[in-house]
Amino acid sequence: MEAYQKVFPIGKMARFLGVCRSSYYSHLKPSKRSVENQQIVKKAREIHSRSRGAYGSPRIHVELKREGITCSRVRLARLMKKVGLEAKMVKAWRRTTKQKKGALSACNHLNQQFSVKEPNRVWVSDITYIPTEEGWLYVSVSLDLFSGKVVGLSMGETLETKLVLKTLNQAFLHRSPKEGLLHHSDRGSQYTSKYFRDFIGDHKGKLSMSGKGCCYDNAVAESFFHTLKTEHTNFYRYKSREEAKNSIFEYIEVFYNRERLHSTLGYCSPVEYEDLWNKQKCSDF
Question: Which ranges constitute the DSSP H helices of the chain?
């Protein structure tokens, strides 16, 4: 229409093409709100891309505010839906560990009290498996309940006790917790083994274990693996265990611990949250 406006009347072309004249003029000179919407969508796409497709409107809204862009969350959600911009979806939880008959378990001292006031008081651990063309890759993690930070990580091709011992050894070396650390896990055979119990005892820690068959007792660790798979590993087909290891390590150490916004932490990353806590602690003295 713009190209032929000197040849044919705008009204006549609009009737012929079945469009409104107002739409044509809006195209020529977009409204202020339309321009703002385009800018918001453009920035939302950038943030969504940086988050590896993990962020929905709540986290993107926080990032927009941090960058000085004013926009209501409802407006952002509407614009994102219009252009098909959404967070990666989740799948159902699956149990991955089993307790051997006759294995010694510990009481559930944690009892779903997931709110912790300082670092290195309560850690939770779990194991999952990731498919590769070479076979399963088993992933063991330990998280600090205070910030949700992954403080221990190990991966291997066999599901043995040494896998979780390597994870805990790494966590103790990096964090140096005081005596009395509470370690919570499910009742998997790796955690009920004598070697694991002795390891926690040697480090003056205290064992806590979920009730039999109750995944909610270790919900934080289960939630982490949910996130790992639905935001990252489910979108890759790994040719080898080594490729999967590198990919998972990069996601956890670069993105999850240092960049990913956690709603339970006031939309801070685990590292940022711990840094703020340490600064506050220093200022109190």
Answer: 10-17, 21-28, 32-50, 57-66, 73-82, 161-175, 189-192, 194-202, 219-231, 241-250, 270-283
| pLDDT less than 70: residues of the chain | 1-8, 10-12, 16-18, 20-30, 89-104, 285
Strand partners, 184: 124, 208
Q: Could you give the domains of the chain?
A: 10-82 (no CATH), 122-283 (3.30.420.10)
Half-sphere exposure of 58 (CA within 13 A, CB side): 9
Encode pLDDT of 223-271 as tens digits. 999 999 999 999 999 999 999 999 999 999 999 999 999 999 999 999 9
Residue whose tokens read 């590896």: 52
Residue that has been written with the tokens 């790994």 in this structure? 238
Q: In whole angstroms, give the CA distance from residue 186 to residue 110.
A: 11
Q: 128 φ, ψ to 5°?
A: -140, 180
C-alpha 253 chain-centroid distance: 12
User: What does R_g of the chain's alpha carbons equal in angstroms?
Assistant: 25
